[in-house]
Write a structure and sequence with these properties.
This protein is mostly helical and about 130 residues long. The protein is built from 6 helices and 3 strands, in the order H-E-H-E-H-E-H-H-H. A 3-stranded parallel beta sheet has the order 2-1-3. Helix 1 packs antiparallel against helix 5.
């Protein structure tokens, strides 16, 4: 369980930022459900294009939580550029902390809740 402490810390940081009013940007509805199931409250929006998404969050602090695959990284790069044009730099660090601590077992945000459950169930069975 200790090996996953950085993962749980990153998820707690995500929850805390959401409580503080940061907007979380994800790729789809299953990502929203996964984060909600993990207890992430606050505003979560689904990516709808670089300009339109940036326009929605331009006045807020934001966290990009796209998948850790080629499409998710492409969306992240485009969103960072779009938001920087408004003078905002979104947080991508939390996403990196989360996905660097899942031992390459998952790469999608929608898989995060079930991955955490699996870890917690494994811990309880020992």
């Amino acid at each position: 369980m200790n090996e996953y402490k950085p993962l749980f810390d990153a998820i707690e940081e995500l929850k805390e930022r959401a409580r503080e009013g940061w907007v979380i940007i994800v790729e789809g509805i299953k990502d929203v459900e996964s984060l909600r199931n993990l207890g992430v409250n606050g505003k979560i929006i689904i990516f709808s294009g670089f300009a339109s998404t940036a326009d929605i969050v331009k006045d807020r602090d934001s966290i990009i939580m796209t998948d850790y695959d080629s499409r998710g990284m492409e969306i992240e790069r485009g969103l960072v550029r779009a938001l920087q044009s408004y003078g905002k730099t979104p947080d991508t660090r939390i996403k990196r902390k989360i996905f660097s601590n899942v031992n390459k077992e998952i790469s999608k945000v929608e898989e995060l809740h079930s991955f955490i459950l699996k870890i917690q169930l494994g811990k309880n069975s020992k």
